[in-house]
Amino acid sequence: MTKQTHISSCGSPWPALEYNTWKDTLKTVHQWTQIVGKIRLVSMPWQNHSWHTALYITARGLTTGSMPYGNGMYEIEFDFENHRLIISSTFEQNVVMALRPMTVADFYKELFDKLQGLGIDIKIHGRPNELEHNTPFTENVQDKSYDQQQIVNFWQLSVSVYNVFSRFRSDFVGKCSPVHFFWGAFDIALTRFSGRAAPLHHGQAPNMPKEVMQEAYSQEVSSCGFWPGADNFPQPMFYAYSYPSPVNYGKQQVKPQEAFWSEDMGEFFLPYETVRTAENPEKTLLDFLQSTYEAAANTGNWDREHLER
Predict the structure, then answer these.
(1) What pTM value is reported for the model?
(2) For residues 128 and 168, what is the distance between their CA atoms, to the nearest angstrom?
(3) Could you give the count of Cα atoms lying within 13 Å of 72 in the half-sphere of its Cβ?
(4) Mind giving me the DSSP string for 89-107?
(5) Mean pLDDT, contiguous 10-residue spans, the chain (309 residues)
(6) In sequence order, what are the beta bridge partners of 181?
(7) Is the CA virtual torsion 275, 276, 278, 279 positive or negative?
(8) Nearest-angstrom CA–CA distance, 49 and 178
(9) Are 294 and 302 in contact (CB under 8 A)?
């Protein structure tokens, strides 16, 4: 049975994802991905816009990709298909830990014990970033949920989002980020660059160094992504924004008709449910990505002739 057949037999490639149904699991796994993401952060050389910190969507879940260590390398992968965390390395055979209902503190201890067993000595900043409440990982015994089916649903939609974002990415020949998963906000993101420097960014995310934000937005961008929601915004959304935000950017007509501009957030949004229930989800999402990019590029006077294929 091929992977595609297996995914289809488990459910729709655009499964339902109701925030209130899986919010406890989301909060727990969010913290787990922050721990693994911070391991990648300290293991990798710095890359522009913090790209060295991101995780990547795989045929089984999320991965750090290969990380250098000593005279070898290692990798950590969330296998959401089989509900396990896999540590691969050039030093020993694979080490596996089960993904199950467990506290953030227990996840942290077990993971670092296994790394130590491989001779990998890594130290990270032990608190979450981009979250209002940043209890140290070793003290977080509140978040401890893991609903297997909800995680499978998230993984399935992540694969679908990755496929559409990758197709959209291919039409741009200027500087462009990979399709990557940022564990700070638990979102899948893709960013295009105009090639021009941007004014100094003055915004700041919770528990995030100002300098990191300023370097991330040091160049003009048109960015899009998927975000699963939060307590104060309990609805999964696709989003698109530009920095700096050109005059009249938010007044542009974008597709589909369900997409809307948020004056408070300074972003375009499209509910995930609109995409999921569309007759052609892939085209609906592509329309949103393309039209919001054009809104940014046209109002921002991007050199589209040389940036697009």
Answers:
(1) 0.95
(2) 31
(3) 10
(4) ESSSS-EEEE--S--HHHH
(5) 42 94 98 98 97 97 98 97 97 94 98 96 97 95 98 98 98 97 98 98 90 95 98 96 97 98 97 98 98 98 97
(6) 55, 188
(7) positive
(8) 12
(9) no
